[in-house]
Design a protein that fits this description.
single chain; about 260 residues; five-stranded antiparallel β-sheet
């Protein structure tokens, strides 16, 4: 038969310390939850090396859901060679960033520029054009032709829908023109594409990972705060320091116990 356990009456100072610790630990736990860092943006990048051929339409699936989000299309129409980035008749919410100075053409965006809601997008079947070349008229048209010089590593701005929400991305394309007097494209090369997984959040052209935002939180201040050299009363602030705060509390506990014994 087990004897009933005797209840030990702790010294009042120890009891006070335990009560303070329980309260502080609870508050510190809530504080740590409040300081949890927000979820970061995630960029999904797909490297590529695809040479588009004359007469070919190539669908690009940014989010790998099995459905292309826009098309690259190189064709000849009434003697004019035309390079097109199109939504191919997709529903509203899909499109390519337009050149506002000449809305018939798609922007040839430089690396580092922002692609997001502030831009204008269009996704018609044969629109917008990236570049045109007309032998009969001896004319180059569009920013991707650049007057017959072509462009290297420029970016298409892309808007598409995923689960009913808008997302933004980019596709990196090089247009090569070896002989500007010939008025035709030599090569069209797709070298990669990416999109931002957070709905309606802009993406930076050329960005392949992480987020463009940087911030410092309260945890930075806590890591650089000096730890007191002398024992201090157990407080919420001391416990929020983690292991150093606990050592402060333990020193106080040890001192209090010694005083009680004496």
């Amino acid at each position: 038969m087990k004897r009933p356990r005797k209840t030990a009456n702790l010294p009042s100072s120890i009891q006070r310390q335990l009560n303070m610790y329980a309260l502080a630990a609870s508050a510190a736990g809530v504080g740590l939850l409040a300081l949890a860092p927000p979820s970061e943006a995630k960029i999904v990048y797909t490297p590529a090396h695809f040479n588009l051929r004359l007469g070919e339409r190539h669908g690009v699936d940014l989010n790998h859901d099995g459905t292309p989000d826009f098309d690259l299309y190189w064709t000849v129409d009434e003697g004019v060679s035309v390079l097109i980035a199109s939504g191919n008749g997709r529903p509203a919410g899909y499109g390519v960033a337009l050149d506002r100075a000449d809305p018939g053409f798609a922007l040839a965006i430089f690396r580092g520029a922002k692609i997001g809601p502030a831009r204008e997008f269009s996704g018609y079947t044969f629109f917008p054009k990236m570049a045109t070349a007309s032998r009969s008229g001896s004319l180059w048209g569009g920013p991707w032709a650049d007057g017959g010089k072509g462009v290297k590593n420029r970016y298409l701005g892309i808007k598409f829908q995923s689960k009913g929400k808008p997302h933004y991305g980019w596709a990196r394309v090089t247009v090569t023109i070896e002989n500007p007097d010939d008025y035709r494209f030599t090569a069209v090369l797709l070298t990669g594409y990416a999109y931002e997984t957070i709905p309606n959040k802009p993406i930076i052209a050329g960005q392949t990972k992480g987020t463009d935002d940087s911030s410092t939180g309260p945890q930075d201040a806590a890591q650089t705060s000096p730890i007191p050299d002398t024992p201090q009363p157990a407080t919420l602030g001391a416990l929020a320091l983690g292991a150093p705060g606990l050592s402060i509390w333990r020193r106080e506990d040890s001192v209090a116990a010694t005083l009680e014994r004496n």
